[in-house]
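Journal club prep — side note

Before the paper discussion, L.F. wants everyone to see what a predicted structure for a comparable chain looks like in token form. Sequence:
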Amino acid sequence: MKWLRPNQAARSIHDVDYTALWERGIRVLIFDLENTLCRWRQWGLDPRTRALLASLRERGMRITILTNASIPPRQPFRRELEDAGIHLVDCAHKPLRGGLRRALAALGAHPSEAALIGDQLLTDVLVGKRARLYTVLVDPLGTQESGPTRFNRILERILGRRGPSRADPDPR
């Protein structure tokens, strides 16, 4: 069960203590996309999220987005991320580690300096833990989700998903 225990939990990406992550040596933030940064299939960042990511980049954080979604090549969201200096790895097949490895390689990062922030235990937290990243679980932004994600949510409840704002005392 340690593979499903996030190191930290927060209500949203806006409630994560990024200063504490920096103090831990975290220099790379890997965000899940759907229901973490934006709602399901509504690819685009709201102004508050855009401002947060810009602020984190100004602090020196390197950022990538890791998603199981397939974002079409001509989707304007891809350009928005590129213009903001944010790398995107789509079709990541989480909880498999291949997409995460591509994300780390693209940023020239080691797992010990990276945190994965997402809304699902069985994809985001699991892949992060398997790759030895620090993990942060946030509440999902909405209730609309794909069929596989809805199934994962049922399993999360059975497994006793913890509520927000509780930190796991085990740092890794």
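L.F.'s comment for the group: The longest strand covers residues 62-66. Keep this in mind when we get to the figures.
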